[in-house]
From TrEMBL:
Keyword Nucleus: no
Organism domain of life: Bacteria
Limits of the Fumarylacetoacetase-like C-terminal domain: 87-270
The protein's name in its UniProt record: 2-keto-4-pentenoate hydratase
Pfam families per UniProt: FAA_hydrolase
Alphabetic keyword roster: Lyase
InterPro entries, per the entry: Fumarylacetoacetase-like_C, Fumarylacetoacetase_C_sf, Hydratase-Decarb/MhpD_sf
Keyword Lyase: yes
Length: 275
């Protein structure tokens, strides 16, 4: 396990945020899980957790990674029940997290990965006004794609509270995007059914209504939250709208094929290796 940075009971808020950020950064760099960061942040200080996320993301950007969008986590009730965390959160997507249909993903870049099926939104307009609603999201969306998210946690054994997963960039890992765009014209995403297969066997089922009622509703939530936190969504951003069903452990090399009713399919190919 990644060693704990010093931060005793007399450490101020800034020191505790620095300690949590250092712990997560070291865990990511060494591919070694760490203890929960709630020991520094508490279980309910979400603002402090987002500040940890911001600092870790800023360091990643300073090292050359480019922000390409955002992801929503903890949208589906079944996923919330898996972790005992009953509210959504968000994280940042970077260019080095993005893969295309069929492109191999090295298993060694992850710590304890799991797969989930989602709908990815690609924005054609900014969503930068307070109070964004469903109509704003529909107008701003250029197209959607089927997507497999590889979620990962730097926290040992996925032992999470809301502050742990927020600080850890919403437990992000990688994203695999389909290659055929679909517009939202007369399409009800709440009715889209999902099946996720591993090596030809179905392992997860779900539907759009499991994602805060509809993936469009989830993206509207994200748009409002990101404006409130001064990180608005911009034209060109990829937005992972949240799981449509249970996440499943990856465990080893394999092929995860996602089928979405009316939106096609995408396959994530997990291979041995680190690069």
């Amino acid at each position: 396990m990644t060693p704990l940075p010093d931060a005793d009971e007399n450490t101020g808020p800034g020191g505790r945020i620095d300690a949590a950020a250092a712990l997560l950064t070291a865990a990511a760099a060494t591919r070694t899980p760490c203890a929960p960061v709630r020991q520094y942040l508490g279980e309910g200080d979400i603002d402090a957790a987002y500040e940890v996320q911001r600092r870790v993301a800023a360091a990643r950007a300073a090292s050359g990674a480019r922000r390409v969008g955002a992801k929503i986590g903890l949208t589906a009730p079944v996923v919330q029940q898996q972790f005992g965390v009953f509210q959504p959160d968000f994280g940042v997507l970077f260019d080095d997290m993005m893969y295309a249909h069929g492109e191999p993903l090295p298993l060694g870049r992850f710590i304890q990965p799991r797969a989930e099926g989602e709908i990815a939104f690609v924005l054609g307009r900014d969503l930068d006004r307070p109070g964004a609603g469903v109509a704003d999201v529909l107008r701003a969306t250029e197209f959607v794609l089927p997507a497999v998210e590889i979620v990962d946690s730097r926290i040992t054994d996925w032992d999470l509270t809301i502050t742990d997963t927020v600080a850890d960039n919403a437990s992000s890992g990688a994203v695999v995007l389909g290659t055929t765009p679909h517009t939202l014209d007369a399409r009800d995403l709440s009715r889209v059914g999902m099946t996720l297969h591993r090596d030809g066997e179905p392992v997860s089922f779900g539907a759009g209504h499991a994602c805060l009622g509809s993936p469009v509703v989830a993206v509207a939530w994200l748009a409002r939250e990101m404006v409130r936190r001064e990180q608005p969504l911009r034209a060109g951003d990829v937005v992972m709208s949240g799981a449509l069903g249970p996440m499943v452990p990856i465990g080893g090399p394999g092929r995860f094929r996602l089928e979405l009713d009316g939106l096609g399919e995408v396959e994530a190919v997990i291979e041995e290796g680190t690069k």
